[in-house]
Amino acid sequence: MRSLCLLSVLCLTGVSLADKNVLVLLENLTIKETHSIYFKNMVDAGYDLTYKVADDATLNIKKYGEFLYDHLVIFSPTVEEFGGNLGVETLTDFIDNGGNLLIAGNSNLGEALREIASEVGFEADEEGTAVIDHLNYDSKDDGKHTLVIADPKNLIKSDKITGGVTAPLLYRGVGLLVDQENPLVLEILTGSSTSYSHNPDLPIKEFPHAVGKQTVLIAGLQARNNARVVFAGSLEFFSDEFFTAKVSPVGGESVDSGNRELAMAVSDWCFKQSGVLRVESISHHREGEENTPNFYTIKEQAVYTIVVKELVNGEWVAFDGTDMQMEFVRIDPFVRVTMENKGGKGEMVANFKVPDTYGVYQFKVNYHRVGLTRLYTTNQISVIPLRHDQYERFISSAYPYYASAFSMMAGVCVFSLVFLHYKEEEVKKKTE
Questions:
Q1: CA distance 107 to 144
Q2: Integer Cα distance of 81 and 110 in angstroms
Q3: What is the rounded CA–CA span in Å between residue 346 and residue 105?
Q4: Is 188 helix (H, G, I), strand (E, B) or coil?
């Protein structure tokens, strides 16, 4: 009975234990202790964590064609090759099947993580390099200026991803570059304009790999199937030391770091506990009716309604967006209209006039915003021409043609009368 009650509660809230199955791959078991606050917060949030060493020979994430985990956390920066049957191809297949991946690296990034990064549109700097900032560093730095203070203003403008963090952040790790031509890649946290990536023990003889705000500290990817990947260049970013540390800029006041808040917000976003949308229902009908028709006639008024829900704190609530658009498409959009959010229920409603061109159309919604899962829905419908008894009679623009027709008829009548009744007088002969 108790199990049935628990199942009922989970169904009502929209929370499923199945989508919180997480495999954590560690460099060594010591990381479980040095990052205990992060893992405890994950457990408190309802995640089911399974810990394994990254080079474990028995490592397996797939069985009978099905993946055993919903999410992967890789806290093993220097691993050169994963154990068991786990490899780069398996991880890309995991992402292609909707799995989510959170990776943390450091300045000695292994070849395995470099390959994964390149597969998803990121590029890490060379081994031994670190992000350096000679103006924005913590007073606890060892003199190399690699303990960087990241300004929260350099976070991506999306509270769904960052959780609205306003406190400064501590970072020590490798710098990343992202593919600017890849529209799926997100720069979650970048360095300041004075930061760059280089080996702190070597003199600078060539232009650094990444300079200024091109230096990405935390990068993200949301694939077209809504799978999410987060790649942080710093494993220490998630450590107990950085979670509890005071940020002490040189000559400034010490404040609590925002690492803990950002780490949990990014993790929730990566594991689809934040910024997730779903379509609950779709309907369309003629204005003034309720039933969905099999077709529309040109120039009719149509009403399209889509109900969208958002996952917030484990519950599906009405989506409050006001910029969702609907397109009525036949190869190209004939109608594009911003839908009205009725509020309270997440109903998005579009009223529009069916085009005066008949054919096969689609109601299409393609909603893509930073931090939210992509919504893409299509519904096909036919648009037919007017029936023979639906055309307008005595069109005003045709009055000149009506007048010409009747004037011609009148002219023929007059001509006929004249022609039939007119008789020419006979000319008298000259002899008479």
A1: 14
A2: 8
A3: 40
A4: strand
